[in-house]
Amino acid sequence: MENASYVTLTRQSGLMREMQVVANNIANLSTTGFRREGLVFSEFVKALERGDPSLSMAVADVRATFLTQGGLTRTDATFDLAIEGEGFFLVETPEGERLTRAGNFSPNGEGELVTPEGFRVLDAGRAPIFIPPDAGPVSIAADGTISVGDQPLARIGLYRPAEAADLLRQQGTLFTAANGLEPVEESAILQGFLEESNVDPVTEIARMIEVQRAYELGQSFLDKEDERIRNVLRTLGK
Q1: Is 63 exposed, middle or buried (CB count within 10 Å of its CB: 0-12, 13-18, 19+)?
Q2: Angle formed by the axes of helices 3-27 and 201-237, nearest 10°
Q3: 10 Å Cβ neighbour count for 79?
Q4: What is the 3-state secondary structure (H, E, C) of 136-199?
Q5: What single-letter DSSP state applies at residue 72?
Q6: pTM for the complete prediction?
Q7: Distance between CA atoms of 75 and 104, rounded to whole angstroms?
């Protein structure tokens, strides 16, 4: 196989991955707190024989997460929470602590504030939050303080990665940061609201069409290159 085919194949592989990323974005248009993803293309330069020019190939194996604020939907549910500004809620999963913007929480049977999957929501001290089962009306202030009447119970913590580029998606709306977290103080928590996905359907569909066309052009080139090689072999075989 000639170098031109190798270069095109690496590009086709990256375009296929990007199509999967775009399709996943579109599939999560209605997912609470979902963050849109993109794929970062880079160049891989391979040295050839001495005196030959180098070979430049495309590499697409890094995903970038877009943190733009999603729209807010009012639900008026006591434990539906949205973040206005940057930062994430912190939840405890069997695999460790995870960040999320999906704030559709509720108390479980033991009175712990949890996600729909049963993961415990953590406070500003990274401890579980307990809501007494017989508590009266619960109010949650913009700074995350949970109160029953005039009695504060806990304060929901907001966090962000210590390094901005360190955010890594684990699954769905859950993220981790390998180099640690730092608290966020300047953002506000809104009670009775949920943050929508930040995916723009028009942008994603336009990108899907663009990627599909680019993939089809690459495939057309490979087909023509394959036919050219076959013709050469047939000619030499006579």
Answers
A1: middle
A2: 160
A3: 19
A4: CCEEECCCCEEEECCEEEEEECEEEECCHHHEEEEECCEEEECCCEEECCCCEEEECEEECCCC
A5: E
A6: 0.82
A7: 10
Q: Which amino acid is at 157?
A: G
Q: Are 171 and 31 in contact (CB under 8 A)?
A: no
- Model pLDDT, residue 138: 93
Under 8 Å between Cβ of 19 and 212: yes
Q: Give the mean model confidence (pLDDT) for residues 47-53.
A: 65
Q: Are strands 37-46 and 55-65 parallel, antiparallel or unpaired?
A: antiparallel
* Contact yes or no for 192/185 (Cβ under 8 A): no
Dihedral sign from CA coordinates of 96, 152, 189, 29: positive
Which tens digit of pLDDT belongs to each residue from 203-229?
A: 999 999 998 998 888 877 777 776 776
Burial tier of 46 (Cβ tally within 10 Å: 0-12, 13-18, 19+): exposed
CB burial class (10 A; 0-12, 13-18, 19+) of residue 15?
buried
In angstroms, the first-to-last Cα distance of the chain is: 21
State the pLDDT at residue 1.
46
Tokens of 87: 């930062």
